[in-house]
Amino acid sequence: MISPIPRVPGSLIVTLFLLLLTPLIVFYPALSLSAAREGLQLWLTVLLPALFPFLVVAELILALGLPRLIGAVLEPLMQPLFRLPGAAAVVVAVGFTSGFPVGAIMTARLIQEGLLTPAEGERLVLFTNNASPLFMLGAVGAGMFGSSEAGLLLAASHYMANLLVGLIHARLSPVSRATAPLPFRSRLNREWQTFLTQPGTAGETLGRAIGKGMHNILIIGGYTMFFVVLFRLFSAGGLLAPLLALLEKALSALQCSPDLAPGLLSGALEMSIGCQQIAVAQAPLSQRLVLTALLLSWSGLSILAQVATCLAGTGVRMSRYILARLAQGILSMAIVSLWLLHIPSSLASACIPPIFSLQTWPFWPGFTGIAYLALACLLLLRAGLSARKGVTKR
């Protein structure tokens, strides 16, 4: 019988890490300060404006009880596709329109509120924790690569690979709970009444959502600054040199440019820095796009640490989440490679194709706006019918 691998205590790992990092901070104080400023600038200029509105929206959705209401409507869709309760649909929608780690935050909250079991939450977080579309289209595509088409390609491969991960895990997992015993109409009426009786005024609800959103974005900023400092100090101390040399040899063996190794290594720690370095590397565009797709799916140790913090105490296994990130990275690379065979290799267009920038009205944001407008109309219609029914009873 094979004996189990002994588990190293977390306190020992942190202590060893502390003994390794502290001398570098003392020996390179100027570098540590400049790296912290770099992380702060990254947080202020990219993460804060891109994520904070979504964090507030996510908190508002949870505070209003919308997962239960929307779950009653979308249960017939979520069960056959992902073998998840209807409440998970809200996390899918927010996770695909926001960025790391909003999907993990919402999944943890649904588990804590009893809307998901730990097993269901584990499957949900595997494919709903995504890179921000604003980051992929704006920062990476238009900003780093100078091409909106490159951003569209990366975003499309990212979301397609994520959906494939969710569908595959759903097929490999058993149905964990039976369909709701209540008829659809009865359940919808019950959840609607619960939605109308949510406690607190509008100002209180908004204030709590903004407070929790700011708390979460500050945690994200702390992780970002810490890992930027960590990467710069480890690089200056020569600790990453053996890994860099090994990675250069591996890329050369795969007939890829070794100039991509620094970006790939830095992206393993912090995604944003890695994407930026790969975008400016002296390598063919196809190789840069494929490896950028890998980094966007892997997300970096900084994001993984944030996700681990969000999911602490929920019963979700981080080992399975990490394997899902690797699987998504492989799928994203394959999708980008296939698409590059059928589209112009230059990707030099500076404008998004018209089909992707379609506007229904000058003041409404395309297809996403239609979906949210339809939801708003349904809620208003439902409220009007409920009010009319209440007047009739009186």
From TrEMBL:
<feature type="transmembrane region" description="Helical">
    <location>
        <begin position="124"/>
        <end position="145"/>
    </location>
</feature>
<feature type="domain" description="Nucleoside transporter/FeoB GTPase Gate">
    <location>
        <begin position="45"/>
        <end position="147"/>
    </location>
</feature>
<keyword id="KW-0812">Transmembrane</keyword>
<feature type="transmembrane region" description="Helical">
    <location>
        <begin position="12"/>
        <end position="31"/>
    </location>
</feature>
<dbReference type="Pfam" id="PF07670">
    <property type="entry name" value="Gate"/>
</dbReference>
<dbReference type="InterPro" id="IPR011642">
    <property type="entry name" value="Gate_dom"/>
</dbReference>
<keyword id="KW-1133">Transmembrane helix</keyword>
<keyword id="KW-0472">Membrane</keyword>
<feature type="transmembrane region" description="Helical">
    <location>
        <begin position="86"/>
        <end position="112"/>
    </location>
</feature>
<feature type="transmembrane region" description="Helical">
    <location>
        <begin position="363"/>
        <end position="385"/>
    </location>
</feature>
<feature type="transmembrane region" description="Helical">
    <location>
        <begin position="323"/>
        <end position="343"/>
    </location>
</feature>
<feature type="transmembrane region" description="Helical">
    <location>
        <begin position="217"/>
        <end position="241"/>
    </location>
</feature>
<protein>
    <recommendedName>
        <fullName>Nucleoside transporter/FeoB GTPase Gate domain-containing protein</fullName>
    </recommendedName>
</protein>
<feature type="transmembrane region" description="Helical">
    <location>
        <begin position="289"/>
        <end position="311"/>
    </location>
</feature>
<feature type="transmembrane region" description="Helical">
    <location>
        <begin position="151"/>
        <end position="170"/>
    </location>
</feature>
<feature type="transmembrane region" description="Helical">
    <location>
        <begin position="43"/>
        <end position="66"/>
    </location>
</feature>
